[in-house]
Each structure stands twice: as C-alpha cells, then as structure tokens.
C-alpha cells in the first residue's frame, strides 16, 4: 500500500471516530492514555470552602499505602489517596443493579435522576481506560444526570466517558456548586472526577453534564468514603467505612477512642420509649486537659490556661474551637468534631454525635488506638456488624469498654491506650454554651 493510501485510511478512521459511539457496531479506533508513575491533582475547585472537586492525572495514581491504614492485599483496598483528606477510597462493588439505582455489597445505594442502561466494558460499552472491564451505566443519550448519595459521604468519585468517540468537555458538579470540567476522550479515555468535603461538609449528590453532541455518557467505577463517626442510637462508621451498632447499657460510660495522648468517652442514655441508647455526654481528655459536652449545649473546659475569641488552648498544643454548630478539637494529630442533633423519632430529644478525622490518614500516635470506634483505625477493609452490640467488629464484648469508675475523664478500661498523666496544671474552669 502506498503512503498516500495509508494517509487516506487514517483519515477515514478519524472521520468514523467523530460520529461513532459506544452503541454502534463495527471496529473503531481506541486511544489509550499513557500513565506516568505517581498520581497528582491537576485541578482543584472550591465553592464556599466546603466541597472540593479534584481531577486526577493520570486517572489511577500509583498505589500508596499509609502506615496502619489499608492492607494492599485486602479485598477492599484501593490505591487512590485524596490529598488533604488522608484516607484511602474504597471501591464500589456493584451488587443490586436497577435502572434507577445501584447498590453495593454493603448497602451503599446511588440513585439516578434518569433511568440508566446497565453495560459492561466490552459488552454493550466498547471502551474505558486503565484496564477496567466492569460495570458502567449509560445515560440513554441524556446529557445531564444526577447521582444522589446516602447520608454521611465524606468523599465520592466516579469515572465518566462520552457515548460518541470524540473529545468532549465534561463537567461534574457537587451539591454545593463545586465543579470540575475536563476534556475527556470518548474512545478509551474515561476520566475520574472526585469530590471531598472539608470539615463537616458532606457530598449529597453529583451532577454530570456533557454536550448534546456527545449523545449521552456512561459513568461507573464509583468510589466513596463515609465520614468516620459515631452518631444516632449509636451507629458507628469506622475509619475505613465499616458500619456497626453498639447499644451498650443505659447510664454507663464507654470508651469511644483511646490513644496515647487523647481519650474520648461517652455516657449512653436510654431513649424514653424503647431499648435504644444515644450519647448524652462526652468527655475528652487531651494530656491533662478535660473537656465536657452535654446535650444542653454547654461545654466545660478545665484547666483554663488561656483563650482567644472562640479558640481555647488544650494541653500539648491542642485547641478547642467553635465552628458553626460544632466544637472542634484538634490535638495530637486528631480532629474531633462534636455536634448536637435532633433525634428523628422525637424532635424534642437531642443527642450528641462525634466525627473523627486525622491529618495523615493513620493513627497519629504511630500505634494502634482502641475504644469502640478507635480500634477500626488499624483494621484493613470494612467490617460490618452482625448485631446491636458490635458483634463481628469489636474486640471482646461491649462490656470490655465500660469505664468502671463511671468517670467521663477516666481513660482506664480493658484495652486502654492512654498513657499521659491525668493531673492538670493551672487554675480555672471555663463553662460556656457552644450550640
């Protein structure tokens, strides 16, 4: 074949690729993105300093495993690390598939604003990127679709590729307006769009929009991270997203987090009309500092060494700060957020929630913390509870986490990790309303 014929053949392929799509038959050219070693964020956008949108290039960063975090051999381990958040994402395992929603093997459900067509790469959808061959969902030529997420989502990501085999500008927008726009090649160039919530912000929904010329798109290969938290009656979401319940016993004080320099305890209170419990008081120990919060919205701090506006100093360079309707404690690598919520079943009943973050995505002390929630930091994967007392997740039984002295500031229990001296220095006690 002559050089001119080769050129003509290549030209015809280009023309075909501009009009072909994933639902058309016959061969088509495939563009494969070359990956560089290591992942980097190439774009970051913010809206209201709450939800951050990021785009990774290349789509899959080189696997990174932080100390005491996720075992790379674990079935749920995922290599994507969100810079500034510190946690590894877990991969959605498509289990229950419906035109209007999809649910993974742990009950995480993503609802679609329009009915989507289920496809798999190589069977109904021709190309993707980075070797993925699993499930995707076609918008049936709709240009805009919104994915609605369950509560308490700290971060969410999804890959998107246009239907037509050409390059189109695709925009993903989170519920608070944070958006990411990227040119994505519809022939083997599926790109990852990611959002994470800073502070108390949560990802409630993500809208994807493509030009009408793209003839719709497919999304899939979802990734998410639930906010590590103890909330409600009480529901536990562990460090890696596992979920379980511990009702404990009404009136008892339980260890929630026990680390070398930080301890968080909570008193469980019984609901008026059933056997469920909730956190009615929380005691936080940071070195020699004691902070108490209850459902009345009053914070008590001792000893009071100094204060600056709404920021109060704790031992070992820790701080307690008012941020909106939360008291935020930053100490020894932990970020602990305590909030007061109305119980859904009784609008007159208040309970306390406590959410946890770390700076590095691993135990700040370099060792493994404990407590009803703390023990999940060093466990790979997402363990799911089998009962109402942490069965299948916690070490020992729930009784092992009772603070026998009934003192909210006593760190001693069966698996205690707190080692600092409890005797405080300085004088004075601060009592203030914070919510």
Percent strand: 35-45%
Q: What spatial form do the alpha-carbon principal axes imply?
A: elongated
Task: Compute the average pLDDT.
Answer: 76
Q: Can you count the beta strands?
A: 31
Uncertain residue segments? 1-19, 24-49, 53-86, 422-435
Rounded Rg: 25 Å
Q: How does the major sheet shape up?
A: 9 strands, mixed
In helices, the fraction of residues equals under 10%
Terminal Cα span = 79 Å
SS-based class: mainly beta
| Alpha plus pi helix count | 1
What does this structure look like?
The radius of gyration is 25 Å and the shape is elongated. β4 and β5 (101-104) form a beta hairpin. Residues 1-19, 24-49, 53-86 and 422-435 have low confidence and may be disordered. The protein has one helix at residues 3-19; strands at 40-47, 51-57, 90-91, 94-98, 101-104, 109-112, 117-121, 124-125, 135-138, 144-148, 153-162, 167-174, 179-185, 191-197, 205-209, 217-226, 229-231, 235-237, 243-245, 253-258, 262-270, 277-286, 289-294, 298-302, 307-308, 311-313, 319-323, 326-331, 334-343, 346-358, 430-433. By secondary structure, the protein is mainly beta. The strands form 4 sheets. Strands 1, 2, 3, 7, 8, 9, 11, 14 and 16 form a 9-stranded mixed beta sheet that branches. It has 1 helix and 31 strands.
Q: Which features does this protein show?
A:
435 residues, mainly beta, nine-stranded mixed sheet, disordered C terminus
């Amino acid at each position: 074949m002559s050089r001119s014929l080769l050129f003509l053949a290549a030209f015809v392929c280009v023309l075909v690729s501009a009009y072909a799509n994933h639902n058309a038959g016959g061969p088509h050219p495939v563009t494969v993105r070359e990956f560089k070693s290591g992942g980097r964020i190439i774009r970051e956008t913010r809206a209201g300093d709450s939800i951050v949108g990021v785009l990774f290039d290349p789509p899959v960063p080189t696997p990174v495993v932080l100390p005491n975090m996720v075992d790379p051999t674990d079935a749920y381990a995922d290599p994507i690390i969100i810079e500034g958040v510190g946690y590894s994402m877990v991969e959605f395992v498509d289990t229950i598939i419906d035109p209007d929603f999809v649910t993974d093997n742990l009950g995480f459900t993503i609802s679609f604003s329009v009915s989507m067509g289920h496809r798999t790469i190589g069977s109904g959808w021709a190309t993707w990127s980075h070797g993925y061959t699993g499930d995707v969902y076609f918008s049936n030529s709709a240009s805009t679709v919104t994915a609605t997420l369950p509560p308490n989502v700290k971060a969410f990501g999804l890959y998107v590729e246009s239907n037509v085999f050409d390059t189109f500008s695709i925009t993903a927008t989170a519920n608070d307006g944070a958006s990411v726009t990227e040119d994505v090649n519809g022939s083997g160039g599926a790109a990852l769009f990611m959002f994470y919530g800073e502070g108390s912000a949560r990802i409630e929904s993500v809208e994807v929009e493509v030009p009408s010329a793209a003839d719709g798109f497919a999304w899939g290969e979802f990734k998410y991270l639930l906010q590590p938290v103890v909330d409600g009656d009480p529901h536990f979401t562990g460090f890696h997203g596992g979920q379980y319940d511990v009702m404990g016993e009404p009136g008892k004080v339980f260890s929630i987090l026990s680390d070398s320099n930080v301890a968080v305890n909570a008193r469980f209170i019984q609901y008026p009309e059933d056997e469920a419990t909730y956190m009615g008081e929380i005691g936080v120990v940071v070195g020699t500092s004691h902070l108490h919060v209850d459902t009345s919205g009053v914070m008590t701090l001792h000893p009071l060494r100094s204060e600056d506006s709404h920021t109060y100093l704790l031992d070992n360079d820790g701080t307690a700060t008012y941020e909106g309707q939360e008291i935020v404690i930053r100490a020894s690598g932990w970020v602990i957020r305590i909030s007061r919520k109305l119980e859904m079943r009784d609008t007159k009943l208040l309970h306390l929630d406590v959410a946890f973050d770390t700076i590095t995505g691993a135990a700040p002390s370099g060792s493994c913390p404990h407590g009803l929630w703390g023990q999940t930091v060093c466990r790979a994967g997402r363990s799911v509870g089998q009962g109402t007392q942490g069965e299948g997740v916690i070490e020992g039984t729930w009784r092992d986490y009772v603070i026998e002295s009934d003192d909210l500031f006593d760190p001693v229990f069966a698996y205690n990790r707190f080692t600092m001296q409890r005797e405080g220095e300085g004088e004075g006690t601060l009592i203030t309303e914070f919510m």
